[in-house]
Amino acid sequence: MYLARKELGGHTYFFIRESVFRDGVWQSRDLFALGEDPARYIVYSGGNSFYIDEHVLKAIEERGVKTDQWELEKIFWRFVKPEIRRTIDNFSAHYQLKRRPRLPAREQLKLQEKFHLFDRRRLTFLKFGGVNIDPLLERPLPFLNVLKDKSRDEIEQLIMDKEMRLKPRETLAYIYASFGLARHFTHRLTKFVPEAQLLEEIDLFFLEELCKIAADESYRMGLSEETVLQDYLSRYVIMHFDRLEKDRAYFERQKARMMRERQAAARKVLSRAAKVFGVSEEELWRMGKEDILRLFRRRAQKLHPDRGGDHEAFIELRKLFEDLMVARGWQRRF
């Protein structure tokens, strides 16, 4: 059994579900609807003790599923009062859960290859971070075994819980790694640096990969494209476009600010150059590169030190000419 949540009409509803193997695929089914507030089924009996309302246990058993208070407490744990959770956690901190024996490397690799690549990428990023994670997937990774014998819904609920720990600055890297977007930039040295790519290109390739996953039967596990898009994959569209909106707005503001500063600097250069060359700003702006070069050469001949001109004035003229070339877009400043 596991806890599932679903967004409906702006509200979050919780369910107790289980994964069952049926018709050759793992599927999920509802066992009990908890509503918007699962905490109402937690009964506090004094001190730090609590138990789950017997009504829940009986309703689940009526669906043909045997359960007990211990299993239900694990499902409801996040809704237990924080002070009780802290007390119980501190009391049980010295206990170690018994680990399952690890599989030999070859068996582990054979098992994890059965899990969908999208699931493996997501869990690997959420555990280790980093964008270039595909080489890690060629190694035995026992933590991926949590994907075994689970329906698409249970897998998504598991990963959704882990995604809640993502920091906003990790969102772009998570999307980039999980959807394998680096393969669209293999010709670039910066292929594993999502920040170095154009957001418009990332948007395009992200949507392309998302549609491929939605159409992949091995990912859908018996569900329709519409269901996986609406219930699971839509959160990545929100994550990518909405969570990154602040970053996009920031970069747009930065870009606009730089353009304003560049235009202001260009106007200053144009004003200075017009006075030095003895023409109007409008005329100077309409001139081509060769025309401006002729103006510079004519003025440079008078100021050149070899012809009795002032050395400092010649250097300033040279600098003004370079600034004008940059302002007109004919030369890059390095």
Describe this structure in words.
The chain is mainly α and 334 residues long. The chain has helices at 54-62, 69-76, 82-91, 105-112, 117-128, 152-163, 171-178, 199-215, 217-220, 225-242, 245-277, 281-286, 289-303, 311-327; strands spanning 2-8, 11-22, 25-35, 42-46, 49-52. Helix 5 (117-128) packs parallel to helix 6, helix 11 crosses helix 14 and helix 13 (289-303) runs antiparallel to helix 14. The two termini are 61 Å apart.
Keywords, please?
single chain, 334 residues, mainly alpha, 3 domains, 3-stranded antiparallel sheet, two-stranded antiparallel ribbon, 5 strands, 12% strand, elongated
Broad structural category: mainly alpha
State the separation between the terminal residues, measured CA to CA: 61 Å
Averaged pLDDT: 89
Q: Note the main sheet.
A: 3 strands, antiparallel
Q: Can you count the helices?
A: 14
- Number of extended strands: 5
Helices and strands, in order, run as: EEEEEHHHHHHHHHHHHHH
The figure for the number of domains is 3
Q: What does the overall shape look like?
A: elongated
Oligomer: single chain
Rg on CA atoms, Å: 32 Å
**Unreliable residue runs:** 93-97
Quote the beta fraction: 5-15%
* Helicity, as a percent range: 40-55%
In which order are the strands of the major sheet placed?
A: 1-2-3
